[in-house]
Amino acid sequence: MQERKYSIKNWAKDDRPREKLLSKNPMSLSDSELLAILINHGTRDRSAVDLAKEVLGMVGNDLQDLGRLTLKELMKIKGIGPTKAITIAAALELGRRRQARLSYPSKISVKSSGEVASYLHAILRDYTHEVFAVLFLNRANKIRHFEIISQGGITGTVADPRVILKKALEQEATAMILCHNHPSGSLRPSQADEDLTGKIREACRYFDIRLLDHIIVSEEGHYSFADEGLL
Q1: Does any domain span residue 3?
Q2: Distance CA 23, CA 114 (A)
Q3: Contact status, residue 139 vs residue 161, Cβ threshold 8 Å
Q4: Is 118 found in the same domain as 49?
Q5: What is the pLDDT of residues 95-128, one digit of tens each?
Q6: CATH number of the domain that 133 lies in?
Q7: 148 and 94: one domain?
Q8: pLDDT for 74 beyond 60
Q9: Residue 175: how many CA atoms within 13 Å on its side-chain side?
Q10: Helix boundaries (H) for 47-111
Q11: I need a labelling partner for 177 at 20 to 30 A (CA). Which of 22, 66, 101, 214 fits?
Q12: Beta bridge partners of 137
């Protein structure tokens, strides 16, 4: 079989992303070269690096915005199929989770809304639609589990208090922190946000579970129901 003209195999050994990473270190590779390693191979007419450059071009070479690309958007590029798109998305999710762990390791007790907000920003910042999540804590106020409960459109989402309480019991949580993002940037809670918080607070009392806070995060910062005296 005739080798593809644009194959990275035809490049000088020191210029190939994998060999370059192996002989030097990850810091020596450009963003497109690192992404090309994930893409793995190109097409008959384009190398993996070419495809990587087009992917980055979709977000103006901004790695922060790269995490916001959906699988469907990635697959609009000729040569990026489901397998390549899923590999890229998985790598970005690992990076997101690593950053979240650095922001708030699970062994550390929850002390302030600001600390929790930093953790939530790391996890939720790439969502372009609203998501509702819960932090489940133990008696020492250490995070046992984080879970996105529901996802909605750009303007809102709906969370079922019954589902939340069921998961709290499954996790043997003694405390919870509700959280959701506002893609619009606004930090003002809606009436629906306040009503839902009230319903969950009342339900928690029946199971001796403490509702510590409800935190809204956006690119503008965060809003804490507890800090504002709404709990």
Answers
A1: no
A2: 42
A3: no
A4: no
A5: 877 776 655 555 567 788 888 888 888 888 778 8
A6: 3.40.140.10
A7: no
A8: yes
A9: 13
A10: 48-57, 63-66, 71-74, 82-103
A11: 66
A12: 143, 175
